[in-house]
Every structure is written in C-alpha cells, then in structure tokens.
Design brief:
The complex is a heterodimer of chains A (about 220) and B (about 250). By secondary structure, chain A is mainly alpha-helical. Chain A contains 9 helices and no strands. Chain B has 2 domains: about 170 residues, Rossmann fold (3-Layer(aba) Sandwich); about 70 residues, no CATH class. Chain B has a 6-stranded mixed beta sheet with strand order 6-7-8-3-9-10, sandwiched between helices. A 4-stranded antiparallel beta sheet of chain B has the order 2-1-4-5, with helices on one face. The chains are: A mainly alpha (about 220), B alpha/beta (about 250).
C-alpha cells in the first residue's frame, strides 16, 4: 500500500490537488459563503481523476503486481489525505479566528457563516458527499468523471445553501456564534463519524465495482 | 518443461462480439506470433490473460499456476508492452521508474541502466518525447529490469518505420536466446516470418489454428493457401468488395 500511495502522490496526483489546499484560507473571509472552500478543495481532487484518465493511470496500476482492489483503496487514501490536510488547516484558522478575532467587527456583522466547529462539520459533510457521489460513482466505469461530478455539484450546492440559511432561523442562531462550543463540537464529531463511515462504505463498494470492470 | 502460459477454452463475450473458445500455450524461450486482422480479438485475448478484462469462461495458467489467486506473484514475472501502455506521458522517465521499481521484488538497477544504455533512452526525457519505437523499448527495458520471463506485446511494431521494426525484431531474437518467452500480437505478419516459432491465428473471434510456425506454413502450403503468413491471411480474410458493390 505504501508503494501505491507513493505512486498516487508522485505520478497520479495533479498539481492543482495540492495547490487548491490554499482555498482553506477562505475560512477567514467575512461576507462570503466560506463553505465553498470545501467545494473548491474537492474540485482540486477532481483534477487528479481527470489527469488519471489522460495519463492511463488506471491501466498502469492494473498491470502492476498488486491486488486490483488496492488501486481503489490507495486513491481513497490519497483523497482523504488531501481532505484531512484541508480540514486541519481550516480547523487551525477557525481556532485563530475564534480566539483572537471573535469580536472583530467584520465577523460580528457577518450575515454569512463564520468559521466555527459547525462550519467544520458542514465541511466534513461536503467531503463525505464527494467521496460517496463523485469517487464512488467514478469507479463504476473508471473513466467517466462528468456525471459523477455533476451528481456531486447537484448534492453539495443545496447543502451549502441550507448551511447558510439555517443559522438565520429562530432558535438556530447558535450555529453561527462563538458560544455553545460543546454543542458545536458535538455536531462536528457527529459529522466526522458520518464522513468516516460514508468514506469506508463508498470505498468498499468502489473496490467491488472496480474488480468487475473490463478496462 | 512447464509452458510459461497455457490458455484453455477462453471465452469472452461483449454485446456485439464473441471471442473464443481460444486455446494456446507459450513455451519458455520461444516467440508465439498471435495474428489476426484488426478487430479479430487479439487485444481482447491479451486483456483477458492479463486480467484487465474478465473472461466468461476458460482457464489461464502461468508457470503452472492458475491466474486467479496468484495474480500478484505471476505479474512479478510478466512484462507488458503495447500502444495502450503509454502511461504518464509528461512525467520524467526517471520519476516513473523511481515509483515502478518499488513494486517488483526482483528489480535490478544494474540491468535497468544496462538496457536503458543499450536502447539509448535518456531517463531525463518524458515518454511523450520518445518515438513509438522508443516507447516499446522503454517498456521492454522496464520488463527486463524486473527479470520478466514472459513478455506480452500488443502490436509492438505497429506504426514503426522499417528500421525500428527490424531493430525490435533483433531485440526479440536476442531475448529469446536468453530464455525469455514472447507472446507477440500483430497484424503485420512479415514481422513474424522472421522470428516466430509458433503461430496462433484468430479470425472474427474464433481460433483458426495454434501450431508451430513450420507445421502451420506447411499445412497451408499443401492446401495451396499460400506459402507465407501474409498470403495465408489474405487468402483467408480477403472480402470481395467488387461483388458486394455489384449487389
């Protein structure tokens, strides 16, 4: 698996998958739908799948002396590595904002979502959607990425809208404040559980589909 | 001696195409020419025996071991080259090799440097900077560096100029002398006249013959169906379009 992961990082990965990690910085932008940062990070990962088709990555991998299902597992691990790196960056920036700039005017008067543990929870849900809908559906053919990415867009955009609307509803203001931290952290941990289980289930299904494919 | 590859009753069906049953075997240190016109099922057969397409039925044994369940160990001993294997065209060859070498237990760096030197391949180049002939040589260098005992080559001479084709055929002959077996699919039959020991011929997905070159040629010669592979294939495959247009 180490060798396959090395291949993912050095041969398969598109440079934009790494560069788009910089979209994590959007967590600090006031007056902007900051959840789009998660979408852009997934868009960076999409470039690796597109690049893989252009470079015959799947065929190269299938001809190696490995178990075919490990090709899929290695790709999921790569995707998760990028997502977890983004999550850690966002979590660090969120902590900075909450500790040092919690009462700064741009954040206090922000009609949009501020970065807090609830924002991190929504981020994990967007990542879970990407892993389930895009990556999972991609491995039904191992070459079609258009429809899977449209499925991800169709599912993730309403989630981003709902996330921006919910904290305006009476009784749900706590979703966008810096107090009620324990409740917000609980929501984040629940989202983490959803992310982990959705990714594992999707990976196992993708492995089964990939093994049955004629390449 | 156990054949390096035995294929028995291989059948693969697609909605618009049926391959097989196909049976043949490849002996160690021999060259098997796998012929048929475009679309006859050569690539489907090779994909099936490499387990990148799933046969509906049949048995595939390498070095006496069944492919299912032994794929990892078998692929350590098999090399593949073909037009479809043009991977990572914009990465430096040195970077591709740095990753690839780790997958093979028997990778030999000295052999790698030797073959890259023999084939005059600059590892600082990218695959897209290589000619088609050089790409085949690169894949051969990789296969030989992990001491592959069987090379599966899908139309390696297609699209090459006559000098490059001649060079490759010389390389195949030299490898055969070193005990490497080669399964070589092509529709350029004149290449096989020069080097093949055995011939497997498929037509519209069906096996026509699998025999030694000598007995394949003498059988067809006796029936007046031509004296070399090209004449035999033309006799078997040619369709009369003048009649078809006249209908």
């Amino acid at each position: 698996m180490i060798n396959l992961l090395n291949k993912e990082l050095r041969l398969s990965a598109h440079l934009l998958s790494y560069l788009f990690l910089a979209f994590s910085l959007m967590a600090l932008i006031p007056g902007y739908p900051i959840l789009l940062s998660a979408f852009f990070i997934c868009f960076g990962l999409f470039q690796t799948f597109q690049n893989g088709r252009e470079t015959n990555d799947v065929l190269y991998s299938a001809l190696l002396p490995i178990d075919k299902k490990d090709v899929v597992k290695a790709r999921y691990i790569f995707v998760c590595l990028i997502q977890i790196t983004a999550f850690i960056l966002m979590a660090g920036l969120t902590s900075l904002r909450m500790v040092f700039f919690a009462s700064a005017a741009p954040y206090m008067n922000n009609a949009m979502m501020n970065s807090n543990p609830v924002f991190l929870a929504w981020t994990l849900l967007i990542f879970a959607l990407f892993n389930t809908l895009f990556v999972g559906l991609f491995y039904k053919t191992a070459y079609r990425f258009g429809k899977p990415f449209i499925a991800f867009i169709v599912a993730s955009m309403p989630v981003i809208c709902i996330a921006e609307v919910l904290h305006h509803l009476p009784g749900l203001e706590f979703l966008n404040t810096s107090d009620r931290l324990p409740l917000q952290l609980m929501l984040m941990l629940s989202a983490l559980a959803v992310y982990v289980s959705a990714t594992i289930i999707s990976c196992k299904a993708a492995q089964r589909n990939f093994e049955m494919l004629d390449l | 001696m156990t054949p390096v590859l035995v294929v028995e009753n291989l059948i693969k069906t697609y909605p618009a195409f049926r391959l097989g049953p196909v049976s043949f075997k490849v002996e160690a240190g021999s060259i098997m020419g796998f012929i048929g016109r475009n679309g006859a099922g050569k690539t489907t057969t090779l994909k099936s025996i490499l387990n990148i397409a799933h046969p509906n039925s049949g048995s595939i044994r390498y070095f006496g071991q069944e492919l299912p369940g032994n794929e990892r160990a078998i692929k350590q001993r098999v090399g593949f080259a073909g037009g479809a294997a043009d991977c990572y065209p914009r990465k430096k060859i040195a970077d591709i090799i740095a990753v690839t070498r780790n997958f093979y237990d028997n990778w030999d760096d000295a052999a790698y440097r030797k073959y890259m030197g023999i084939f005059s391949i600059d590892p600082q180049k990218t695959p897209r900077e290589l000619s088609e002939g050089m790409k085949v040589k690169l894949n051969l260098a990789i296969a030989l560096s992990h001491r592959a005992e069987l090379l599966i080559l899908d139309e390696p001479t297609s699209g090459l100029d006559p000098v490059s084709r001649e060079e490759l055929l010389e390389i195949f002959a030299a490898l055969k002398e070193r005990g490497v077996a080669i399964l070589f699919s092509t529709h350029i039959t004149s290449d096989l006249d020069k080097c093949a020991d055995y011939i497997t011929y498929i037509r519209k997905g069906e096996l026509v013959a699998s025999d030694t070159m000598e007995s394949f040629l003498s059988g067809h010669r006796m029936r007046g169906e031509g004296s070399n592979l090209e004449e035999i294939m033309l006799r078997c495959e040619k369709e009369d379009y003048r009649d078809k247009f006249a209908e």
